[in-house]
Each structure stands twice: as structure tokens, then as C-alpha cells.
Write a structure and sequence with these properties.
With 321 residues, the protein is α/β, with parallel strands linked by helices. It has three domains: 24-159, Rossmann fold (3-Layer(aba) Sandwich); 165-225, Orthogonal Bundle (Helicase, Ruva Protein, domain 3), CATH 1.10.8; 230-320, Zinc Finger, Delta Prime, domain 3, CATH 1.20.272.10. The chain is built from 15 helices and seven strands. It has helices spanning 9-12, 25-37, 53-65, 84-95, 118-130, 149-152, 165-179, 185-195, 199-212, 218-225, 230-241, 245-258, 263-273, 281-299, 304-320; strands at 43-46, 73-77, 106-111, 135-141, 156-159, 182-183, 215-216. Strands 2-3-4-1-5 form a five-stranded parallel β-sheet, with helices on both faces. It has a two-stranded parallel ribbon with strand order 6-7. Helix 7 (165-179) runs parallel beside helix 9 (199-212), helix 8 crosses helix 9 and helix 8 runs parallel beside helix 10.
């Protein structure tokens, strides 16, 4: 949070209308057409985190219902309660109650719906059919493949893409200007490299860095976010590729303990550096394959230090052959 106001910037500067959104122009255009016609099908928003799915749903409600949007819009997060009882209880009670506004339906926004169990999704599908005249469902997920086909077939599907670098940059610069912060170009580049099109993460990183100083540079970005700097990751990989396993382990230990970086962050940082490494293309392919295996193991709960050390050992062994 900001050290003076306590505001959370991602909420403070969230667009309240579809016309204020940046990126996802094709999706915004279609949603504006629904608003103009005062009608709406069930919607499915799919795409990576931080690409505007929640913002689009809230902005849609603002434009459709005006000042009464809170009475006609309910946001639920399926990751909190993912079982069938939630669908039969909270969701059903809201969906079957009539609205008193000028628009003949209301909106139930179900975020992270891919976390719902298959039984809960089947029950949800029946509610979407039964109460379609008085309630429209807007379903958001990161992975549409985890949504059962009967739900997908009942929705207009919108696929959100990672935001373009120039869109994220202009948004961050607007926030920095409004907050009276000076942000160096190097800081913007560092945020863009780390966030990879995730607007929410970009704004949060900027707010963290600006809490240290009103002038934000790349060093403060990496310092505040506990993310490994590119030069540190480059040194880690270089020492491994040159056969200096002990040195690479010491560098890894420094990143994990002194910097506080997570194993996932280190793996992603190495992946970002792969294309710049002075090694043959076939070795880059093998390295990416190894990174994918390590990331999967970390996602399954394996010990980060052991897994990343195993990756370094694999790199050293490949160069010593």
C-alpha cells in the first residue's frame, strides 16, 4: 500500500467504463455493442491473469446499469468455495431473485470458475438455463479447457491476450504522474520484463517500488519485489555453463536467502534469459525442456533449492561432456 494514502493502486485506477480500458480493443468493442442494445448473453472470459477480465466485467456493469450497478451486479470468487454447495446456495439464491432496475436482468460475475469442481459446474450449467431471463452469468477463468463443454456452449467466449508493452507502459506512466512519482525508463523496462503483460502485477510492482522512493529506477524495482536481477541470473547461468558448479550453487544460495527470490521466480528469470545465451540453439532447446520439467515439479510442491540445483547440475554436466 501507498505509505501516505493507503490506497491500493490497482483498485484506485481501475477503469470504471469500457471506453477507459486499454488493450483488448476487439473485446471492448463487442461489449459496448451489448451495452448499446441493452442485452447480454452469458459470457465466458478466458485468458492469463492481469489482462483485464475482472475490469471488463465491472466496467460492463457500470455502463449497463449506471449508478445502480451495485444492486444488479454480484462478484464471487470460485477459488474461495469451489464445491457444489456454493452453487446450490449463494449462486442459486442470487440468480433466482428478480431485479427492480430498468434493465430486465442482473449480472453474476464468477471469477476463477476453472477452480470449480466438475459437479459444481454441472449444477451451475442448470442454473444458467433456468434463470437466464433474469440473470446473466459472466464467467472468468485462466484456463478455458477446465470449463466443461456444456457451459462453454452456452456462453459467448472472449479470449483475453497479454497486454502489449506499450499499453502497460502508458498506463504505468499515467499512474506515476497522478501519484507524483518519477519513474525512470529503466524501471518501466524492468517491470515490463517481469510482468510479461500482466497489468495487475505491473501496477503492484510499481507501487511497491515507489514506497521506497519517489524516484523509481530498475534497482528499486528488483529490490522491492524480491525478484532476481537479469545480471544476477546471467551470472548464475554463465557459471554453470562454464562448468563452475560450486560458484553457481553459491550464486543460487544468494538469490534464495539474501534476495528472498522464490524458485519459480528464478526459473522464470532463467527462461527470460535463454535467447540471449551464447550457446547453440540445440542447447537452448534442451535448457527450455529442463526448465519446463523443473517448473512442473515446483508446481507440484517439490523443494525449490533442490530442483534449481538439479537444473544447474544438468547444465554443468552438459558442458563437461
Amino acid at each position: 500500500m501507498d505509505r501516505v494514502t493507503g490506497d491500493i493502486w490497482i483498485e484506485k485506477y481501475r477503469p470504471r467504463s469500457l471506453k477507459e480500458m486499454i488493450g483488448q480493443e476487439a473485446i471492448v468493442h463487442l461489449l459496448q455493442a451489448y451495452v448499446a442494445r441493452r442485452t447480454l448473453p452469458h459470457l465466458l472470459f478466458a485468458g492469463p491473469p492481469g489482462t483485464g477480465k475482472t475490469t471488463a466485467a465491472i466496467a460492463l456493469a457500470h455502463d449497463l446499469f449506471g449508478d445502480e450497478w451495485r444492486e444488479a451486479f454480484l462478484e464471487l470468487n470460485a477459488s474461495d468455495e469451489r464445491g457444489i454447495d456454493t452453487v446450490r446456495g449463494t449462486i442459486k439464491n442470487y440468480a433466482r431473485s428478480a431485479t427492480l432496475g430498468s434493465v430486465p436482468f442482473k449480472i453474476l460475475f464468477l471469477d476463477e470458475a476453472d477452480m470449480l469442481t466438475s459437479e459444481a459446474q454441472s449444477s451451475l450449467r442448470r442454473l444458467m438455463e433456468r434463470y437466464a431471463t433474469i440473470c446473466r452469468f459472466v464467467i472468468s477463468c485462466n484456463y478455458s479447457s477446465r470449463i466443461i463443454p456444456p457451459i462453454q456452449s452456452r456462453c459467448a467466449v472472449f479470449r483475453f491476450r497479454p497486454l502489449k508493452a506499450e499499453d502497460v507502459k502508458s498506463y504505468l506512466e499515467r499512474i506515476a504522474k497522478a501519484e507524483g512519482k518519477t519513474v525512470e525508463p529503466s524501471a518501466i523496462d524492468a517491470i515490463l520484463q517481469v510482468s510479461m503483460g500482466d497489468m495487475r502485477q505491473s501496477v503492484n510492482i510499481l507501487q511497491q517500488a515507489s514506497a521506497i522512493s519517489d524516484r523509481v529506477d530498475a534497482d528499486k524495482v528488483y529490490e522491492s519485489s524480491a525478484l532476481p536481477m537479469p545480471k544476477e541470473v546471467e551470472g548464475l547461468i554463465t557459471s554453470a555453463l562454464e562448468g563452475r558448479f560450486r560458484e553457481s550453487r553459491e550464486r543460487l544460495q544468494s538469490l534464495l536467502t539474501e534476495k528472498g527470490a522464490s524458485g519459480e521466480d528464478i526459473v522464470r528469470a532463467i527462461h527470460a534469459q535463454v535467447q540471449t545465451l551464447p550457446i547453440p540453439e540445440v542447447d537452448k532447446m534442451r535448457l527450455i525442456d529442463s526448465l519446463a520439467e523443473v517448473e512442473f515439479r515446483l508446481a507440484e510442491g517439490a523443494t525449490p533449492r533442490i530442483q534449481v540445483e538439479a537444473l544447474l547440475a544438468r547444465l554443468v554436466a552438459s558442458r563437461l561432456k
